[in-house]
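Possible regression after last week's pipeline update?

I re-ran a chain I had predicted before the update to compare outputs. Posting the input and the new output here so someone can diff against the archived version. Not blocking, just want to make sure nothing changed silently.
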Amino acid sequence: MEAETDRANFSSKVGFVLAAAASAVGLGNLWRFPYLAEKYGGGAFLLVYIILALVFGFTLLVTELSLGRRTGRSCIAAFKKLSEKHRFIGWMAAAVPMIIVPYYCVIGGWVAKYLFESADGSMDAIVDTGYFGSFVGCELGGVLGDPMTWFLLFAVLVLAMVYLGVDKGIEKASKILMPILIALIAIITVYVLTLPGSS
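New output (post-update):
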């Protein structure tokens, strides 16, 4: 008989849904989506995109969540309980975040740097075409000009969220950040649909 453990839980359904959606949304939805929507027909592309996201993305999300809820175990143990020969799927599901987190921390560091510079009133400098290359090439000088500083800052923020736990960290951050993301996507979508050739 397994010992009962005090498992962290979400305090609300809204928090859970927002956190689940946040884990499913990739950065491509922000920077590649407008380009692809304009290139492949605007509204028609948007319709196909939404259908595919619901058919495949939502289905896989519900399947994975159902398996976790049914077994009450980690992804590795859940897939092992489902079938010993499917245990490798659990290992793959556990490995993917370990691979993706450094990538997201790099990009999150870039975003943090740009937010800092825009709040500092340096908009003219950061919109210059050579600024990004100078930043990632470590040509700006100083601690605040080093991309590693911003990578580490973002990584510490992520670790702090995880350390605070499900309800005080992940859920609270999701309730703040997901509405911002949804607003950004809506603004970008409306903008893209107004570009020439989007009809």
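Follow-up from reviewer: compared with the archived run. Residues 38 and 180 are 23 Å apart (CA to CA). Marking as no regression found.
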